Amino acid sequence: MAHLYYEGMELSERLGLDKIELVQEDTVSRLLSLIDDHFNANLSPETPLTDSALSSLDRIELAIRIEEEFGVRIDERVYDKCATVGELAEYLEENSEEA
User: Fold this and answer.
1) Side-chain half-sphere CA neighbours of 75 within 13 A
2) CA–CA dist 30, 26 (Å, integer)
3) Under a CB-based contact definition with an 8 Å cutoff, are residues 74 and 63 in contact?
4) What b/e string do you get for 70-81 counting C-beta neighbours within 10 Å, with b at 16 or more?
């Protein structure tokens, strides 16, 4: 990636782009797309996982698909720890092999 510098400052810093959390938004978008594509559930980052209408079998399948997509192993403890879809996305970002 090419970096542009201006008076000792990277252009992205001058524009404030270094403060934008693009990775997290990308993770949220990817997770929401994965859930919608495979489970036909249109959720938001604020949707509580307990209100997601995913059955226990769906949650197991989602865990498998998350591992395939993000390289992060998910089990019931993770679902218990992450109250919302957004929190699950944060967990994925923090534990991703890509990070």
Assistant:
1) 1
2) 6
3) yes
4) bebebeeebbee
How far apart are alpha carbons 35 and 44 in whole angstroms? Answer: 10
Angle between helices 85-95 and 22-39 (to 10 degrees): 120
Q: What is the pLDDT of residues 52-95, one digit of tens each?
A: 888 999 999 999 999 999 999 999 999 999 999 999 999 999 99
Structural domains in the chain?
A: 20-95 (1.10.1200.10)
Q: Cα separation of 24 and 8, whole Å?
A: 28
* 3-state class (DSSP) for residue 70: helix
